[in-house]
Amino acid sequence: MTELGDASQSILERLRLLREADAATHGGRVLSYVYDSGLPELDELAAEAMRLVQPVNGLDPTAFPSVAALERDVVGFARRMLHGDDDTVGSVTSGGTESCMLAVKTARDVWAAAQVSGDPATQPILALRPRIIAPSTVHAAFHKAAHYFGLDLDLVPVDATGRVDVDDLRTRFGPDVALVVVSAPSYPFGVLDPVAEVASAAARHGIPCHVDACIGGFALAWWGDLPPWDLAVPGVTSISADLHKYGYAPKGASVLLQRDRDRQRQQFFATARWPGYPVVNATLLGSKSAGALAAAWAIVQRLGDEGFANLVASCRRATEQLHTLIDNVVGLQVVGSPTGPLLAVETDTTVPKRMRVDPHHWADRVSELGFTLQLQPGFTQSNALTLPHTTHLTITPVTERMLPQLSDALTRAAADVRGKARANPRFAVQALRMSGALGRELTADKAQALLSRFGVGGKPNGSAGTATPLPAKMAPLIALVEQLPAEFAERLLIEVLARQVEPPATT
Ligand SMILES: *Cc1c(COP(=O)(O)O)cnc(C)c1O
């Protein structure tokens, strides 16, 4: 290895300094986004594997056969784990979003091909937009896929614990439905959707069924005593599972499996109609890193079934203990009966108001005590049934050894905010409505000016370089997001994120 000179050393020093502002990726302090196996050797192994393929271009596995070999192994492992057979094929993608998007793109193209080759009497259907049906707890990646690929997303309301009624899904089936999606489990409340019932009903209508096991796949496979939820279920046509979640790989790796070859070929894009090299891509990117793939491969080799099973057992023990602990905190309760290493926590409204704990004030207080939880806004469904605003916990293997400190923080925080009313920005929202701002298109500068009025934006009037830190307390901000019309809130959120990466003004 080449020794780095002073100039390079000081560049890395600056990077280390920047990294200090980041959320803790290890140690179990952050209960979302990061998945710490608690095994430092796995991280070292992943880093070395990434380094070995650093200069490789994953675009072309014929020029870099190592990329194909790694992908074959990972797909093979996932196929066994998720009960596919010899006709099950797959791809390693850059993450859950890409896997979900490709599942939708595939379904759309399979659907469109069937319209063209079918009975001429059905031709007018081509004038319809294809539709995806899913419980309203389905991951936002499917909103994104529908948006990018021109499908309608038909969201089926769930009950207040996140469960969907199979009949509610079934009654929406029709010739324009290109895909039905269920989750194993869903992100917001950790509900394992009724995969077998939905997949068999869909199969009877000739509708493909995708199981989004992005978060759960590499955990549920070793969880034990579950109803079938993967390719073991007839009628499941594709499934996604993220290597960079409970596969403990660095970010940039997920697997998408398709039940059969002919379906999967619709996932590809190929063109020989330009003057350059023939392009054949199974995934969305062109030139791409093989780093996360190599790291994921190395981790899968190292852990094997037994290694995964041990880590999942630890997640399960920690999840069960936290579930019990939270249900015993007066004023809080776990939403429904989740499956897998996720929990959502809501106010227990069966106790008097002064005993209730608002999950968002609770999360803000827990944060001051050293653990970061994830706030989830309340959500009103198409049938007007509102899903509660909750706080989300993702439990990883490292959580178990942090249980004493974590339990203490969760209990203390609840005591500290018990009886405190939920944040309610209705006056701010009312003022906005009166000013007419809600109806108007927002320019970047107007959006920024509004944000600074809410204490979020930095300097108003579009001065560049206003990468503004978010407020320390998230509860009021999420409450605002809940009460504003969705499109307006989305526009403001875009502004917050866009400003983060604006270079400083030159004048
Ligand atoms: C995380 C997640 C996704 C999206 O995955 P990314 O890796 O964040 O792109 C999709 N579905 C579910 C259920 C998830 O939890």
Topology:
Blueprint: H1 6-19, H2 40-52, H3 65-81, E1 89-93, H4 96-117, E2 131-135, H5 140-149, E3 152-156, H6 166-170, E4 177-183, H7 195-204, E5 209-212, H8 217-220, E6 236-242, E7 254-258, H9 261-265, E8 269-271, E9 279-281, H10 291-327, E10 332-334, E11 342-347, H11 359-368, E12 374-376, E13 379-380, E14 386-387, E15 390-394, H12 399-417, H13 426-435, H14 444-453, H15 475-483, H16 486-500
Parallel strand pairs: 2-3, 2-4, 4-5, 5-6
Antiparallel strand pairs: 1-7, 6-7, 8-9, 10-11, 11-15, 12-15, 13-14
Helix pairs in contact: 2-10, 3-10, 4-5, 10-12, 11-12, 14-16
Q: Can you offer a commentary on this structure?
A:
The protein is built from 16 helices and 15 strands. α3 runs parallel beside α10 (291-327). The chain has 507 residues and is an alpha/beta fold. It is globular. Among the domains are: 52-299, Type I PLP-dependent aspartate aminotransferase-like (Major domain) (Aspartate Aminotransferase, domain 2); 426-500, no CATH class. β4 (177-183), α7 (195-204) and β5 form a beta-alpha-beta unit. The chain has helices at residues 6-19, 40-52, 65-81, 96-117, 140-149, 166-170, 195-204, 217-220, 261-265, 291-327, 359-368, 399-417, 426-435, 444-453, 475-483, 486-500, and strands at residues 89-93, 131-135, 152-156, 177-183, 209-212, 236-242, 254-258, 269-271, 279-281, 332-334, 342-347, 374-376, 379-380, 386-387, 390-394. Pyridoxal-5'-phosphate binds next to α4.
